Request: fold
Amino acid sequence: MTRLHQILTGVLVLCGMACHAQTDSLSGRIDRLDAAVVVGGPKAERLSRPQTGLEAMNADIVRRMPALLGEQDLIKAIQMLPGVQSPSDGATGFSVRGGQVDQNLILLDGAPIYCAGHVLGFISVFNNDVLGRSELYKGDFPARFGGRISSVLEANTRDGSLERFGGSLTLGLVASRIHLEGPVVPGRLSYSVGARRSVIDLAFPFIDKLPRGSALRFYDVNAKLSWVASPRDRLSLNVFSGGDRIGTSLEQYGMKPSRFDYANRTASLNWRHDFSPSLQSRVTLYHSRYRFGIHANYNYAIFDYATLVRETGLRADLAWQIGARNTLEAGLQVPYYHINSGDSVPGSGNVTISEMHIPASHAFQPSLFVENTTALPWATLRYGLRLSGYRSPDVTYRGLEPRASLSVRLGKSASLKAAYGRSRQYFQQALVSTTGSPLDVWLPASPVVKPQVSDQYTLGFCQFLFEDALEASCELFYKDNRNTPDFEENAGFVIDQPDREAYLRFGRSYAYGAEFMLRYDRGPWSGWLGYTYSKAIYDIPEINGGKPYASPVNHEHSVDFFLSYEITPRLTASACWVYASGAPTTYPIGRYAIGGSYAPVFGGRNEGRLPDYHRLDLSLALKTKKGGWDFSLYNAYSRHNVWSVTYSYSQVDDKPRAAMIYLFPILPSVSYSFRF
Reply:
């Protein structure tokens, strides 16, 4: 099955070369009844909220940012925040405070998304035309969240208009999209439908030199019904469907037409009920399905490979305001999982691939939580407890997850914050790469794979300056993780192995760092400047000779700069500049001979560093009476940022060679939107 690795690598390299914000969403989280937890509001509310590491993002901010390939992207905007790093150039996976990409819980209208990227991760599944408010929690989770140990990204689509019909049509070089919204019953029932499809593949039939079987297309559809059933009841039905097909052939090397197919499907039904002005409930039924498949035809290796993840669950919350100072929240969640980690079926003519069937895994992961927020004249205190469990036919795990945070006001314009939280993660991925790839396979907890447990400590300071035009903040964090998995030395390509757990080793990991941010918003100018220092270390006794080593996704230094200027009411210019110190990597330090050929000898794990990464993006948005033009330059000074490094030996001079592969030179894009 090493041929599978060769096929996937070949396709990856080929592919590499080749509204408004609405915060009161019917499907959104329960409106928090105390001002202490409202985000993005007036200065007093932002100072008093006890949450640390919380960042809010709306569709307007995403729209103003320069776009890769012309696609406005929530996750690309998230990657511009302190403490959040992109694992590689263009990737939609993200690392939060040194965590792996599979340690992020991504929710769309309350349903989990298991693969958030199109085109092998270069464009996210979030269509900005339909998004409302999104929030990122960088470790200090409210007690209602669980199941991941690094972050929670909670994205909600906005409700359709209850009063009038409207929509937009956007034409781009890579993809085009349409959005329609309006009332079904004015004032009571509305709809919102957004669809997006790639257009670059439509030109493939007219290109003579493309390999046979070439395909590069994606689509996604968001549909929503919002119903104001009564003054006390609001319901919404949300559906998402998205998929990709990527295919090629390299017949000069024996690879006939082969392809990847993968798709996400989610559905959620949300019901919010107001028992009284001080007591609210929300009930959510949801289903999520992620499927990935390969059809491969490489010499005599002809087979189909498939994986599947399904999650179906119920979530119910209550929020009760007790007097003027306390808000009590409690709830439960009962998800059921079905995971098929891999089936390989040989095709006609195959002589090298064996049939492989990994038995499907089934598990429940019930949880209960309770949390109270107390607002005092000089401080706000939030404390809670989550009880999470995991039960499968093979094993049972359970554990308590305490959470607490405190915000102390320092005068009228500053506050000091502190937080502690414990989280558990019962599912992890066998990572093909650090970027978050559709090839990554989810593995459930088992007698061998124990749940990861993370304790995070945070200390923060926030200060408003210059009549509140400038917000300055700093956060220090420390994370201590147990049962951290990583693959043994020379594990190779393990997703084609039925006993993947045999290649995993377990130990401790920890991360610490500091995040600084200056945010300005006054008049025509808005933006921020962020700097992050972080270190993430793995300490697994059976790896690297027992010596601690750097996490593969850790960039010790990173700078994020975003600036937007409204030149006129119709013309807005924006710029982004990012810098990150080189990612850890393992370099060869020698070679050995086997039957006349050579193989590399590698040094200590992640002891080397790739070259530093930096990039400038520019955009210009021109509004017209019925729409507007968006012009973008990605990587404006065409920096050759390293995506991967390959090693070989020259047959001419018998010397080692290293080739650094980069993906994106300067990439201009343009799109036109028409609104009606």
